[in-house]
Design goal:
binds ligand LXEULUCI, Rossmann fold, kinase, P-loop_NTPase, binds adenosine-5'-triphosphate, dTMP kinase activity, ATP binding
Length: 212
Amino acid sequence: MTAQATPRGKFISLEGGEGVGKSTQVRALAQALRERGLEVVETREPGGSEGAERIRDLLLQGAEDRWNARAEALLFAAARADHVVKTIEPALAAGAWVLCDRFVDSSLAYQGGAGGLGVAEVRAINAFAIGNGFPDRTLILLLPDGNERAAARDRDRPDRIGGRPADYHQAVDRAFREIAAAEPERVTLVDATGTLEAVTARLVAALADLLP
Ligand SMILES: Nc1ncnc2c1ncn2[C@@H]1O[C@H](COP(=O)(O)OP(=O)(O)OP(=O)(O)O)[C@@H](O)[C@H]1O
Ligand SMILES: Cc1cn([C@H]2C[C@H](O)[C@@H](COP(=O)(O)O)O2)c(=O)[nH]c1=O
């Protein structure tokens, strides 16, 4: 008798600007998927492995000019390379669904679009970092007043990137919408207004074609 191979899990990333509810929804969506009998691993970027969490501190703490734009993009990609190999790939291979709070599209939108490096250039360094390891589905949460929620949560002490000016965050938002328009098979825009439960229901609906 031959052993059955474990079916590979699905890789889902939640994306969007500051304070749109990604971390809240990773937890809620994980719970909803577990209730359907799925094994779920929750993770985040930058971070998600020991080395990547160290890089997170380097990226998010300290003065705005601690890193120039290229060094910043490369540090995000380095953290991601470690995260994929140490956490994401083993979980997918074991059959788990991986829910990731931000992934490569944050680099495309923040460093590529808003940061001025160019989406294609940042995609190229990330292709080197992660190979074909793009998510099966990326859900971008859209909320008009996300920055206000983030400010209330952070009590006006944002991190090195969250504290950038409003026009930077507007450019992030535009870049996310352009990514969604360019990759409709992988990327879905999701309305993040309303109650926590209403948003979770929209996210589950946006995964309907992937669910067993
Ligand atoms: N549906 C909702 N209605 C009202 N408040 C919400 C909702 N979802 C999340 N929040 C609150 O909004 C704030 C931001 O949420 P959260 O930290 O999940 O966002 P985020 O997208 O992960 O933010 P960031 O990218 O800045 O880390 C939190 O205080 C959270 O409790
Ligand atoms: C993955 C990733 C993140 N960022 C930025 C976006 C946020 O300002 C911070 C992360 O903070 P969070 O509270 O955990 O959301 O980092 C980025 O600029 N580029 C990236 O690739």
